[in-house]
Specification:
Elements (H helix, E strand, L loop, with lengths): L5 H9 L1 H4 L16 H5 L11 H16 L2 H11 L3 H9 L9 H18 L3 H4 L4 H4 L18 H16 L4 H17 L5 H18 L3 H20 L1 H15 L3
Helix pairs in contact: 5-11, 7-13, 10-11, 10-12, 10-13, 11-12, 13-14
């Protein structure tokens, strides 16, 4: 393990009873019983600015910036305000709201809270500045973040949610995978993340979901999510029709 990781990881280990959501820490279910170190130690450090990968990171952002269109900017702004409800609505249609799916909404919030406790301090390990802090040539087109760059929180959260939805509905996994890719691309397009930021975020989000899905409480939550959405589909056939149409669109060959 890299020596520079030890101070932060020791702090994370000391906070493990709170970070891991174990009994007595929050009073909530045990969606994950491992440690933050288990997951964060799997993330490689970002490339140095003067390395080939680091220079390619910046050049990719600048090239996208030169070519981005008003439509792409609008898309990046939409992704900037991502949520589990938004992800569900893309897959299942506009009726996917917290009013129609209260249990799914609540469970996704609980699961995300556990994820946030686990990897919320991940950026502090590497302390990578944002692209616009590195170069004045970078012009962002979304809200300016106040935190650090690596790994991408939007990509981690999107991949995490996508993995959970995919666990509940494996038949629609390509829909959620497509949304994760869109999130990653839009964060680079927006000028707030490097390509290596979003790749690391995606990997961390997926690894976190996979670890949590080994837990019985998480498995029970996934079953509740599937049951609620399936029950709604039976009463509203247009929801399933929307999902099948969306699946056909994302899996169609170019």
């Amino acid at each position: 393990m890299k020596k520079h990781l030890f101070p932060t990881l020791l702090l994370l280990i000391a906070l493990t009873p709170w970070l891991s959501g174990q009994p007595g820490a929050t009073g909530k279910k045990n969606y994950y019983t491992g440690t933050a170190e288990d997951l964060l130690s799997l993330v490689p450090p970002p490339p140095a600015d003067d390395s080939p990968a680091g220079m390619a990171d910046l050049e990719t952002i600048l090239q996208l910036q030169r070519d981005r269109t008003p439509e792409q900017i609008a898309r990046a702004k939409r992704i900037d305000n991502h949520s589990a409800t938004q992800m569900g609505a893309v897959a299942f249609g506009p009726s996917f709201t917290k009013e129609n799916f209260p249990r799914t909404t609540a469970l996704m919030q609980e699961l995300r809270a556990t994820r946030s406790r686990m990897i919320g301090n991940g950026k502090e390990i590497w302390k990578r500045p944002r692209p616009y802090q590195r170069s004045k040539e970078v012009v962002i087109c979304v809200k300016k973040p106040r935190d650090l760059s690596y790994p991408s929180g939007h990509s981690a959260t999107g991949a995490f949610r996508g993995a959970l939805f995919s666990a509940a509905f494996p038949e629609y996994k390509p829909i959620f995978d497509a949304q994760v890719r869109e999130t990653m691309w839009c964060r680079v397009l927006g000028g707030v993340h490097y390509p290596t930021d979003v790749m690391a975020g995606r990997d961390l989000g997926i690894r976190t979901a996979e670890a949590m899905l080994k837990n019985p409480d998480t498995q029970a939550a996934i079953k509740e999510i599937r049951d609620e959405i399936t029950a709604y589909m039976k009463k509203h056939p247009e929801v399933e029709a929307h999902a099948k149409q969306r699946l056909a669109e994302v899996t169609a060959k170019p």
